[in-house]
């Protein structure tokens, strides 16, 4: 801890105000009595961005999120969320009026209508979004009189978001927003999240759908064993990972032992994993000339964030000693 830090509640360091970052955390630790779950986490989320937090079960992700939300205390470290310290009771009370949390599963009264539940929730806020406006924002205008129990999964998820957005939050924690939804509902939710960012709302996203993360997130932080493995934009993480590009083409009809070096035949396609696609393409073309084989349907499939994430976890596991990432 820096000598200039002042002690906050529970022996933690006080928050530092930041307007450029909705979240500014430094040296966050959490010890449940059996060793640290979080090991000096530094975590910054620029204002008005979508930031994804990824990690396997038991990585410390949930603990970190709960500390940021103010639902769990930290053991040490400095933390500012919208310029306030979630670990301070007075700051937490103020923070609750400026942020919202959308859990993966929310229980709503099944016998209430969409209109009634939104009106009741609006009464908790000093300057709520109008009913017509919020219904339009989440595309539920046609369901304003419908009972909660009659809504589809996608409609329920959009109602969750409507409730979270009624108070005009500056910061939104969003957990698995499209899990179990159909493609149309997923597209609507993703468009809504993009719109929130465009309007200046900061979103912290947790999701196991890495295609979704790659589409929505401005930055990604990968946590494992209570420490960050990687931080960057989705493209930066893909480029810096050990994930391979796949060069593939249609089965040319030659014997398996005559395929190019490193090639595998999968579902009628020849696949070669490589970190040097240009060299492989040249080698394949030279091989085709030698074998008098016809190359058709040649495609180059770059690695995705999903590929990069799995490669990072694998590399992190290989560097882990006694449960801590080095």
UniProtKB/TrEMBL annotation:
Signal peptide: none annotated. Gene3D superfamilies: P-loop containing nucleotide triphosphate hydrolases. One of its GO terms (molecular function) is ATP hydrolysis activity. Keywords: Antibiotic resistance, ATP-binding, Nucleotide-binding, Transport. It is found in: Cell membrane. SUPFAM superfamilies: P-loop containing nucleoside triphosphate hydrolases. Its main location: membrane. This is ABC-2 type transport system ATP-binding protein. It comes from Nocardiopsis flavescens. The lineage of its organism: Bacteria, Bacillati, Actinomycetota, Actinomycetes, Streptosporangiales.
């Amino acid at each position: 801890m820096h000598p200039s830090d002042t002690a906050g509640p529970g022996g933690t360091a006080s928050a530092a105000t930041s307007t450029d970052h909705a979240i500014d955390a430094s040296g966050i630790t959490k010890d449940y009595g059996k060793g640290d779950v979080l090991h000096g986490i530094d975590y910054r989320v620029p204002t008005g961005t979508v930031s994804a937090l990824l990690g396997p079960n038991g990585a410390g992700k949930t603990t970190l999120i709960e500390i940021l939300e103010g639902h769990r205390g930290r053991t040490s470290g400095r933390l500012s969320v919208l310029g306030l310290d979630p670990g301070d009771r007075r700051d937490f009370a103020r923070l609750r009026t400026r942020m919202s949390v959308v859990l993966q599963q929310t229980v709503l009264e099944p016998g209430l209508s969409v209109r009634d539940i939104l009106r009741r929730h609006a009464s908790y806020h000093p300057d709520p979004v109008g009913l017509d406006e919020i219904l339009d924002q989440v595309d539920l205008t046609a369901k304003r009189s419908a009972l909660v129990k009659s809504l589809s999964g996608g409609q329920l998820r959009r109602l969750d978001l409507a409730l979270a957005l009624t108070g005009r939050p500056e910061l939104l924690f969003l957990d698995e927003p499209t899990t179990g939804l159909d493609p149309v509902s997923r597209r609507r939710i993703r468009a809504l999240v993009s719109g929130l960012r465009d309007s200046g709302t900061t979103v912290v996203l947790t999701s196991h759908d890495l295609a979704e993360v790659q589409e929505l997130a401005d930055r990604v932080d990968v946590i494992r064993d209570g420490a960050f493995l990687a931080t960057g934009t989705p493209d930066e993480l893909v480029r810096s990972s050990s994930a391979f590009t796949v060069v593939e083409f249609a089965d040319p009809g030659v014997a398996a032992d005559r395929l190019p070096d490193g090639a595998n035949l999968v579902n009628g396609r020849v696949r070669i994993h490589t970190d040097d696609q240009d060299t492989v393409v040249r080698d394949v073309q030279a091989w085709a000339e030698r074998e008098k084989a016809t190359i058709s349907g040649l495609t180059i499939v770059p690695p995705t964030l999903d590929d990069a994430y799995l490669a990072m976890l694998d590399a992190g596991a290989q560097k882990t000693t006694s449960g801590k990432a080095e």
